[in-house]
Specification:
The protein is an alpha+beta fold. The protein has 5 helices and 5 strands; from the N terminus they run βααβββαβαα. The structure holds coenzyme A.
Length: 178
Amino acid sequence: MASYTIRQATDSDLDRLVELSLALREHVEASNPRLWRLAPEGVARLRQEIEETLSNPDALLLVAVGPDDRPLGMATGQIRTRPGHVPSLSGYIARVFVEPACRGQGLASALVEGLCTFFAERDVQDLSLGWVLGNREAEDYWTGLGFLPIIVLADATRHDVEAKLAAIRSRRSTDGSL
Ligand SMILES: CC(C)(COP(=O)(O)OP(=O)(O)OC[C@H]1O[C@@H](n2cnc3c(N)ncnc32)[C@H](O)[C@@H]1OP(=O)(O)O)[C@@H](O)C(=O)NCCC(=O)NCCS
């Protein structure tokens, strides 16, 4: 059983946060071959995004660290406003990853609990997040916490869509309905 504590991430964790984010990316890309791949320039962007999160007052990046203070897992929470919608305030959870050797020991739950405290302090009632279809670990974990899917992001090539539209058009013209 790993012994760990939860703390806020700092700039000195940056290299490790990039490492964990790349491992998460590798995990989700392996879960679904249709997913957009991270291009080499995306790695530099990833570092920049993490730096922005660390300095964003509306975001909280937590890490679960071992006795040597090395991050073994991470989770990000972000306050999102949706003007003109109900609810107009929501808490978005992203970039949740636990080192494979440390899974099943409550690290993710402790991280998510920490995010919930942050959201409660900001009076956020509604929580949302996304997972990639095929990422069974994420699906099982999040549905276990009560998250239910509401939107499907679908992907096709324009060529395939045009071919299907041509087939529909040709069916309709042969049966006289166009
Ligand atoms: C999903 C993930 C973050 C869970 O981390 P974890 O530290 O192992 O989770 P916890 O130990 O806190 O699990 C708490 C509970 O969640 C449930 N759970 C966790 N992983 C699960 C899994 N793979 N399948 C089913 N239930 C799971 C269990 O009920 C568990 O309680 P239990 O140990 O008493 O049975 C981790 O497996 C991971 O990093 N996966 C790869 C990255 C990923 O998919 N991240 C989510 C991106 S959206």
